[in-house]
Amino acid sequence: MMRIGLFLLACALGWPTVLAAISPAQLVDAARERTQHSVTYDGRYLAIDYPGGDVPANIGVCTDVVIRSYRALGIDLQVLVHEDMQQRFDAYPSKRLWGLTRTDRNIDHRRVPNLQAFFSYAGAVLPVTDTPSDYQPGDLVTWMLPGNLPHIGIVSDKKTGERPWIIHNIGAGPKEEDRLFDYPITGHYRYLH
């Protein structure tokens, strides 16, 4: 509770909102808590506050599960991605994929390719393998879904045999499911800043 209070104070004062390292178990618990919310899959563009901005709680996409899970632990990916993109905009895929010429703090952190770039620049990259034990609780995984749609989820501590489950929103709201190897994996990250 104290951590949440410090986070809210930091947001209100405009301070950086990365307070301390988190554990994989904390991230999994925060992500699992997201599965208790009724969320309609809705990725439309909305203007949101900064810092600490979010779309309405009853809507979201795969990235919102990740963003909200980290934010519950005092890590604001909206701020971190936005500030990093301001420093190295041309290194992010926004221009190449969407034709953008500047950052947009309303949406940049809600795009899987931007999160992939951010986690890569943060030194959080791990090998992509087909070995289930390589994917640890709290790791982040990205996939390419049919139709060339990027997707992201958080590795759970729940397993089927040796294969860990994923906490994500693939269209029916946040779920914890056995889907790790259902689609081609495009990225594997461990970000416990």
TrEMBL record:
Annotated signal sequence range: 1-20
A matching Pfam family: DUF1287
Keyword Signal among UniProt keywords: yes
InterPro entries: DUF1287
Protein keywords: Signal
Name of the featured protein: DUF1287 domain-containing protein
Organism: Simiduia agarivorans (strain DSM 21679 / JCM 13881 / BCRC 17597 / SA1)
